[in-house]
Fold this protein.
Amino acid sequence: MLIQNAKILDMTGNPPYIGDIQIKDGKIVGIGTGLSSFSGEEVIDADGLWALPGFVDAHTHQGGFDMIDQNGMDLNEMTDPITPQVRAIDGCNPFDKNFQSVPAAGVTTLCVTPGSGNVICGQAFAAKSYGKDIHEMAIKNPCALKAALGMNPKGVYGPKGKSPMTRMGIAAELDQALAKADEYRKKKEKAALEGNDPPAYHEKWEAVLPALEGEIPLKIHCEQFDMLTAIEIAKKYGCHLTIEHAWAAKDYLKELAESGADINYGPVGVPTGYGELTGADLKDVALLDELGVNVSIISDSPIFSEDILLIQAGEAVRNGVSPERALRMITINPAKALGVEDRVGSLEVGKDGDVVLYTALPVQEVSARLRYTIIEGQVVFSSPERS
């Protein structure tokens, strides 16, 4: 595929420029001017269109949260507070109607995560938003170990009269699970060093090891003062932390910046005024960005429509974020938070050929319309010009 004459914002720090993008075998092989097409290559004349990297959503439950039919709720294994061994990829249906609509929002990569009913919820993965086989669509599995603090685990286990009924109980459950996994890890290391038999295989603690060893982040659903608990627990075990939702982040800016955590913020639009749902404000992302925090905007789809990703980025601009910085929050920033920035999040030679073409710069122009969503050089969504 050759995309010609587009106004390119590549998210590498370059100012916008007019140029061509060439994609072969799913990868970007050229970016420049006057590129020649290969024999039989599909050519898109993008004159007057803006070319951006496909959007990346760092927090969804797509393909496993049917908001109408409970039979489609497959990403919340709420039978045990500690379930690190369950994998979101095994409960994700790419034929779900909500999943099918994702490319129409310009989102080409998304993180599908287990729900937050448990203290340790399971393994999240990153995938492309178009395809028939979720295992082929996946680009990193797992990409995070999901955990949750606050009212969600309380709301599941409190009515059952079992731990955790309180925030104290939740923190203790998470700490104890990580401690047991860490002990299991040390026993394995000692056995290997001494040439002895390793400890008996433990399914749960094996699933925690990638987070303890820094291969994937500990992805914790938390808001308000729960964020401080998340920071302390992650620090204790040397885990890289991503904080999910982060409502009321403005009250903890110093602590968040010093923690080194990635912040996946939002969605804004939840009912506010009670409990931990207070404090959702997109001014927070501006404040975090100013402090150098790697902050992303998320949809939590299908709880909200995937369209809210770009809407929130536009609202961030209304709250003082520059258009390019806001677009970073739905492209390269979430790619970094998911550990897939080597493939997606910016337009560079060698990266995946994931491109969205808009009639104007989204987040800045309310008239901007998505014309094409392209994943690995394949048009997966197109919208004709208005007559």
Residues 60 and 112 are 5 Å apart (CA to CA).
